[in-house]
Specification:
By secondary structure, the protein is α+β, with helices and mostly antiparallel strands. Helix content is 30%, strand content 25%. It is built from 7 helices and 11 strands.
């Protein structure tokens, strides 16, 4: 199995060339053009500190169709009680840094290294990367971030300091994306709580067909706000 080395030109090999674990290529950089080209082809970077940049196209791929969102009754009660308030794109850098610091089971350190924080913050300034914030009063207690292209949102990571904060933020956000006509949310890795939200595993050929279709839609660029957010 060939693992491709990337150089200056921000192009990628066919995702079908990835190895059985999903590793497709190594090297390159995290320039905005390369990152956008990667997401437009269902590819994402994921690597550890002191490692070269690794590019992945996993198979199968977990993704959520917004119309298939399932919100557990207990979480719906949390949302309806107004336990949290939610905003979009008000604290992007704080969210990504909290995600980088968030402890994860069976994982030492973080894959959200400083280079990635700088790269995605640059994408945010360009209007392609977005954050969701969950608040209790004036305290930022949960959130998530990702990249938007066409009618697809590519989720990257989430964090919480208070139970249910990130789950509630995700549920409210998916409902907003559905209203905006988004067709798919890429979840990258399969987790139990995303499966409970209604996410499904798609074989690569099906996932890529949905990506290509989604890229035909215009990208909602700029600063996002919830419909009910001033």
């Amino acid at each position: 199995m060939t693992i491709y080395r990337l150089f200056e030109e921000p192009v990628f090999p066919d995702p079908e060339e990835a190895d059985p674990d999903g590793l497709l290529a190594v090297g390159g950089d995290l320039s905005p053009q390369r990152l956008l080209n990667a997401y437009a082809n269902g590819i994402f970077p994921w690597y550890a500190e002191n490692s070269p940049i690794l590019w992945w196209s996993t198979n199968p791929r977990l993704a959520l169709v917004p119309s298939e969102l399932h919100v557990p009754r207990s979480l719906r009660r949390v949302i309806n009680r107004g336990t949290f308030s939610f905003t979009l794109d008000t604290r992007f850098e704080a969210v990504i840094r909290r995600c980088a610091c968030c402890p994860r089971p069976e994982q030492e350190g973080t894959w959200i290294v400083d280079e990635m924080i700088e790269a995605y913050t640059a994408l945010h300034r360009l209007g392609y990367a977005h954050s969701v914030e969950a608040w209790q009063g004036s305290d930022l207690v949960g959130g998530l971030y990702g990249v938007s292209l066409g009618s697809i949102f590519y989720g990257e990571s989430m964090f919480y300091n208070v139970p249910d904060a990130s789950k509630a933020a995700f549920a409210v956000f998916v409902e907003q994306l559905r209203k905006w006509g988004f067709t798919l949310i890429d979840c990258q890795q399969t987790t139990r709580h995303l499966l409970r939200f209604g996410a499904r595993e798609f074989q690569r050929f099906r996932f890529m067909a949905m990506v290509r279709e989604g890229m035909n839609a215009p990208t909602l660029e700029g600063v996002w706000r919830f419909d009910n957010q001033a």
